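User: I'm putting together notes for a lab meeting next week and I want to include a structural view of one of the chains we've been expressing. I don't have a solved structure, so I'd like a prediction I can at least talk through. The sequence is below, exactly as it appears in our construct file.
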Amino acid sequence: MVNFKEINFEGKDMLTVYLNGREVLSTIRIENLKNPDDDKNLIFNLGISIVNIKKTDVKSLYIKIKDPFHFIFESINFMSNIKSEDLPSSLSILKPFSVLTSGCQSWSKGFEYLLTENQTNIRLRKDLLRFIKSDYEPKIVKKGKFVSSFFMHFIERFPSEKAITVISTNHIYPTTFIYDKKENSLYIDLGLRKEQIDDGFIINWIYFCFENSSSELQENLKFLFSDHLKRNLSMLEKFEIFDKSTEHIYGWESWYNYYTNVNEKVVIENLEKLSSFFNKKTVFQIDDGWEKVVGQWEQDIEKFPTPLEKLSDTISKSLSVPGIWIAPLALLKDSKIYHEKKEWILRNYYGKPVVCGNVPLWGGDFYTFDLSIQDVRDFIVEQIDLLIEKYRFSYIKLDFLYCGLLDGIFKNAGHGSAYYYNLFMEELVKKVNDRAILLGCGAFLQLSFPYFQVMRIGADTKEKWEYSLAKIAGYEGRPSAYMSLTDTIARSILNKTVFFSDPDVCFFRKSKTKLNDDEKFLINIVNYIAGSQIMISDDLDDIDMNLKEKVFAFYEFLNLKNFYIRRCFKKDLYFLYDDKKQIFGFINLSNRKYTFKKADFKLIFFDHEISKLFVYHYDFEKKIYQSEVENICIKPHQIIFWQKDFG
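Assistant: Thanks for the context. Below is the predicted structure for the 647-residue chain, given as structure tokens.
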């Protein structure tokens, strides 16, 4: 057990702990995880012990930190034993200009807001809100507040890269950070609702990271999650799907072309052509549509007449890793299990099944299981194990996992949904026992890093830029190229630091798409620099070979370069640069054109004049080449790379 001692430093009085709305006594411990004499990569663990309480059922438990940036400054001062006036300038109090936020799960919105802005709100039907909001966070974000799950990242104004990241390493209970800019207070909700705590309860999973550059941010995250990242990398290498020369996974999946109309014929046709597309070992994943009905994981023999185990063997013989999709916690009323095991269905206070969401391609509303029941967890784990052991698939995409975090009346009461979900995941991983790669999707980001080798980090993409009706409705989890890219950019800091990120598919097809060439190129390149997996869903006899040649040339040009992406002053306009500050770029997800003159760069991005600008172009003779320009013009839905002061 950690030994907590009362400490005295100026920041101590800025922190208060509230249990069920009432202030409770606590002692504080601050532990420095890096060299305190080094002003780089400062990480400290905030340890709190709650004292003088009886055993209590938790309705809410949160920490309030007044003036969090001053608190962190005083913590650094306390740890380093250096007087405030003698601290290096790089350790001055942060003056945040923007805040990077993340929703709770894969499809929830990730976005960098300027502090002068307000976080957007979503007002949807409850069944649609389920896709992007959890029962562990506020459904409505009040004006003047920013809400983020798992982490919150505060950044200074350009050209400074100074930042502070607050992050939780607890993989059982979801942590929510709320920054109130009017109060200048940070609230940390610890996600322990429906649990019990007693005197001496310890909170030791909140970390503050102080960074002077984007590379330090990535180093800090790697440091905190290194054990899990190394293990996941070893698994990817075991199945030989992580291409070491590019540090990416490559493959094909059926969803974004065939959706639930996938069948054996199109699978075989594309399998035969995949090896020559990437010229690497790939993943070949059969997505939703192979099963009779969601919740009844039996092969639909009308669409897939060949037994699944023979189909997976065929995939393996083609030098691909056989993959398959399953939504293990979701079920429809049409499934046998729904009618045969009614006592297994999670129900609300009125005894009605909890609605998890609505998927038109499935026929409407769907439901979930009561994970507090051991037989339920055993049954679900067995369904997944069949895909591995009997049907010989070794890449399993587990989708709609947020269903396991929904609130309801549990048969075995005593805990909240997060506790039972974690039991399920622990039992699943133990059963899988490294026999397959697990990809998490529609899953809580914070609760996923110990379990999934690959993690989806954004909303579903789409073969068109925007889903207009869902946009008008304000649905931030809508399937669209725009929304997927927005999330992928926001969560790029997690790629190869916390997860091997799946940004969703790229597009090379000529038909069955409303994306133009700039948009397809943009998706391909952002996914490459911000993710770890490059998947396609295209018919492999419908490939735009000119686009493929251009994209692959840029893959080679950008290979193993580590990029950091920050938002510009305008919404949907991003500035990116590699960690060596040699290659820069702009990403424009907006519908308007932007032009930057050389003089603008000192005003906005740098602390020095730009003498020359060189933009990267591509043609089929020169491949990638540079040309000197006076201005940089970036069109809507475009990415552009450039250098400064070159030559």
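A couple of points you could mention at the meeting. DSSP finds 14 helices and 36 strands in the chain. The chain has three domains: 10-225, 226-560, 566-644.

User: Perfect, that's what I needed.
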